[in-house]
Structure formats: C-alpha cells, structure tokens
Amino acid sequence: MKSLFPRGGDRGTDIALDELLGQLKAEPPGGRLTVGDQRIRDFLTALARKLLRPEVARRFPELASLGFFLRRSEIERAVRRITDTPAGEFHFPRGVVFHLPPANVDTIFVYSWALSALAGNTNVVRISSRSAGAADAVLDALNDALADADPVVAATQRMVTYGHDDEITAALSATADLRVIWGGDNAVNLIRRHPLKPSGRDLTFPDRASLSVISTAAWLAADETKRRQAVEDFTNDAYWFDQAACSSPRTVFWVGSDAEARPAQHEFAQLLAETVARKGWLVDAAMAVEKHVNAYGLAADGDATSVTFVGNSVAVLDLARPDAVPRRWLGAGTFPQAVLGSLTDLVKIVSPKDQTLTHFGFQPEELRELAQALGGRGIERIVPLGSALSFASIWDGYDLLREFTKITTVA
Questions:
Q1: What pLDDT score was predicted for residue 128?
Q2: Distance CA 277, CA 313 (A)
C-alpha cells in the first residue's frame, strides 16, 4: 500500500496497514477537528487556488469546476448550512470515514473527501491504481498545498492506493464510522461483504442512469446561437468521462409532436457531431465497435426502430417505445431518443435508477410540477443542460454535509 497524500516522493510512500490504522486512531496535533474547522477551510481554499491556475486548467478543464466548488465563498456557504442550526441542535464529526470512489470518474473522490473533511472527519480515501491524468494533477495540488497547511491536515487526511486486497479493505471498514462507496452495483455488493463496526453505516452510490428532456417548441423557436450553445452544453454533459458518469445523459426525450420533433432531432444530431469534432472529443475504433454492437443489439431486441451513426463519435437510436429506455452504458456518444406528448409523461417512465434530468426550454413551474409528480420515485436532480456534472453537496438525494456529521439535540 502506498500513501499518495501525504506522500514523500513522486510515486508515493510505502505504508504498512498497522501504521495507517494507528494514524487514523491517534490524537492529532492541536486537537481534533470540528465541524467547519478553520484549518480545513484554509487548506481547501489553498487547494482551490492551485487547481484554478491557468496551466492546470488548460490541461484539465474539468478541474476548473472542482476549483470553483472549493472556493472560499463556496466553502463558507457550505459551512453555514450545518452551523446555522436551531437552538439545541449541535453537529459533530462522525469520526473516521473510509471512501471508495470509482476509477472511471477520476475527480469525484475530491468532492466526497472535501465535504467530509469540512465536516471535521478523519478520512482515508482509496485511490484506484487506474486513476491518472486529472487525478494525478489533483494529488500534486494536494501535496503542494500541504506545505503551508496546519499539521492537523496531514495527520487526519489520508489518500492511499492498493490492489484488490481484502485484508486492507476489511481492516479499514472495521475501523470506519462511515463508509462511502461509489461505483456499480457489483462493486457496492463486493465491498459490503466486509463488515463495519456495529455503530458504523454505509453511504452508497450504486449504478445510476440520467436523462435529458428538450422542448421541441422551444428548440424550434430558439435562434441558431442559442441552439448551438444548448448542444455545446449537452456535449460537455455527455462526453466528459466517456458518458460513463452517473449524471451524464444517456437518453434524450423530445416533448412535442412527432412531426415537429423529427427535424429538430436531425438538426440536434448534426450540431452534436460538429461540436464533438470541434472540441476534439475522440472515440477510438474499439469504442466504435462497442457502440455498434450495443446499438444494433437494441434493434435486434425490438427496442430500437432505427440506428444512425454520424462518424464514430455520435450514434442516435430511435426507441420503439418511450419506456424502452436502456439504462446500461452503451458506449461513449450513444443516445437513444423518443418523443413525449407532455413533460409529465416522464412520470411513468422514470425508475428509481434514474438520477439526473437535464432540461432545455421549460418553465420553472413545469419543472416543479414534474418533481412533485415524480414524488421521489426517481430523479433527484433536475438541472439545465450543461450542469449535469456540476457536483453539489446534495447528491443522489443525500445532503452530504449532514450525512458526514452526527447531531446532538438538547431539549
């Protein structure tokens, strides 16, 4: 096992399991952290400045969103949400939090860890050995920021990497007061084989799917500039992380008549292909084969009536029925689509597996009506095109800052 944060060298520092467990249980210098601890606030805002440096943002544009999330004003706003509590309600750190983030979205671990640290917890994060690129840039920034940080940060916050070692995962699970599991259903079930302490609990983020909904009337009424911006926003939502992020849209619904939707869908697909090419998103030959297999597999099963490929980067499938939504990943840039008569027709289609709905062309009252009609049966986020990947402290229906704290009440 290697410690990637704090680390002593470019490739991390070897650390024994017993040593790590001892560090997690030790009394940190300067006393234990508190909810909204100023020492953590200062460290996170220093990290934000490093992530927002032009040379970092140019190489990894997705880190700009992370840097924005960690800005001092955002941190202060988050802290107020859990410190401005009713009289007689007190929030305290939960204790030791063990995070197991996914490998396919290589910055999600920072959001989860940062909120838990802000809540005053001691954290240990397992970083996948497959993580690279943006994840390495984040780890570099974390270690750089540590030079000016209070010693309590290095003493309470650990990021490690190790292979599929059940002994390590079991020992860290048994130590944790809260275990945060990101990944597919199988990954969640595999981790859950390792018991927590009796007072511990899991916070899980299993397989999810996300959708987009576009008003045909609003699309046709929009000028060319607005249409192109909508497609660019959709592209950012879909193509970061090869459409594998849980909040990336996979199915597109058009609300309106079939006659009006057909030309709108065609224009959308053409603009999408142009935008993907201009932004330099590439889909390699192996991925293109994967997309062909999955797309024509849906057609063979009777769930798609037509399949159109625009180069390797865009595949559009007409669903045989609006409820024939494939919620598995079909390959980067694959978009089943269907037409609905009204926005509330989504209610009978949405499942508990659906997480984020991105939208274009609807009024706020229409979206609130939809949320009310869904009644919590699916879709925890309804956000504009371009905001699918914008992480928030309320995620998958969880208020994460509250999940990372425990509450004492005095009556």
A1: 86
A2: 8
Q: Residue 216: its pLDDT value, please?
A: 97
Ranges under pLDDT 70 in the chain = 9-10
pLDDT of residue 81: 84
- This prediction has a pTM of 0.90
All domains in the chain, ordered by first residue: 2-207+396-409 (3.40.605.10), 209-384 (3.40.309.10)
What pLDDT, on a 0 to 100 scale, did the predictor assign at position 10?
66
